[in-house]
Structures are given as C-alpha cells and as structure tokens.
Design brief:
Number of strands: 10
Structural class: mainly beta
Strand content: over 45%
Radius of gyration: 13 Å
Length: 114
C-alpha cells in the first residue's frame, strides 16, 4: 500500500485548507485511518482518526476546527482544516491507526503565517 498525502502550501492564520490522502497499490481497504503531523523539533502526533464506518476522533486542539472524512470507493481520506493557527504549521502524514512503518509517505507540508 502506498499512501500519498497532498494539499499543503502557505495559508494565512484564520484560513482553511483541505488535505487529501490517496491509497494505492493494493485492494486492501484500511479500516482505521489517521492524520498525523510533525512540527519542526517536535514528536509526531495524531491529529484525527476515522473508521471505515465514519466514526471519528480528534486531538484536542483539532476539535471544532478540523474535520476528517473518507471516501472508501476512492480510497481517499481528507482533512478539512479551518481557522488555522501558526501552531498548526507542520508536515502532515496519513497512515493506518495504529501506524504501519512502511506505509509512511513523504507527507505534505504547510505553513500558517500570521
């Protein structure tokens, strides 16, 4: 399985961005998917997770601002991020939850400026 995250860039504080994570390389449909982020000099953390059936969980700072969704037919997971803050600046990755080492991709980076 290959997981390709995209959608990063440069955004002003208070703005919005949507990330996409497309799975390819296998017919396997991952049951529980997550978005992770790693800011410079910090440990990676889980931002949000979603089950195949659509149940979701969020890291505390993401609650009320981020929305994770998935399209099982397209094998794509999305992360809609609103009211972005400079502290959201990081490289964002998608992976199974719990993460599988060889599923990590290069991630997608974005910077929130004030």
């Amino acid at each position: 399985v290959q997981l390709q995250a995209s959608g990063g860039g440069l955004v002003q504080a208070g703005g919005s961005l949507r990330l996409s994570c497309a799975a390819s390389g296998s017919n396997l449909s991952i049951d529980y998917m997550g978005w992770f982020r790693q800011a410079p000099g910090k440990q990676p953390e889980v931002v949000a997770g979603i089950s195949r059936g659509g149940s979701t969980n969020y890291e505390e700072s993401a609650k009320g601002r981020f929305l994770i969704s998935r399209d099982n037919v397209k094998k794509t997971v999305y992360l809609q991020m609103n009211n972005l803050k400079p502290e959201d600046t990081a490289t964002y990755f998608c992976n199974q939850l719990p993460p599988i080492q060889h599923y990590w991709g290069q991630g997608t980076k974005f910077t929130v400026f004030s």
